[in-house]
């Protein structure tokens, strides 16, 4: 009994020490913690600033009177869309301490842009001093996938990152704005038409930072600057018709390449969660 009372206090810490050394392996190092996979969901506002570009439009005459000069050739016009706010959402999987993949969607508001002075003067000099301003509007919808790099340890409260990837951009709600009326010898005529922007695949890159609310908090604030390479074709189907007779007089189609290339500045809130595998 006396020996038992002596050996138990001595052998218990010795057994624990031996057990820990055995679990550490031959080298005597403790095994690393199981890897953590972190997921993030972010949502917020996106301030989208498109590129201003001088576009060369080529004319493709469709129909008109026999004595009408159907060769309007090519002319240049500035396409300068307004900056607008939209919204974004993205999901991210941080598979390792420093690498992640993410998928994002950005829905822009209606951009209006384009200098109508070049269009009107080309169509008819009498329009030169009349209605001027934006000639079209459209909404961009951008989907992008990224491979991201995090330089800091996951335990840091501030997490900067950078990423590269690809984007697919589509345009909706394209409208040709009111081009005005024209009075030709007491015959009221209207110049109108439709505009179409093609979809596009391109590259994209981003830099951003997550501000975590605390080590034990799942919530964060996100700031990011994103560049999208978007080289799209812009086509305008224009027609001039007589209002009284509701009859088309001339019809033309103009097309050119437009570098939309927007910057998006995102401000959002995020939620993260993780699990061990």
TrEMBL record:
GO biological process, one term: transmembrane transport
InterPro entries hit by this protein: OMPW
GO cellular component: outer membrane
Signal peptide: 1-24
Pfam families to which the protein is assigned, alphabetical: OmpW (PF03922)
Keyword annotations: Signal
Name of the protein in its database record: Outer membrane beta-barrel protein
Taxonomy of the source species: Bacteria, Pseudomonadati, Pseudomonadota, Gammaproteobacteria, Cellvibrionales
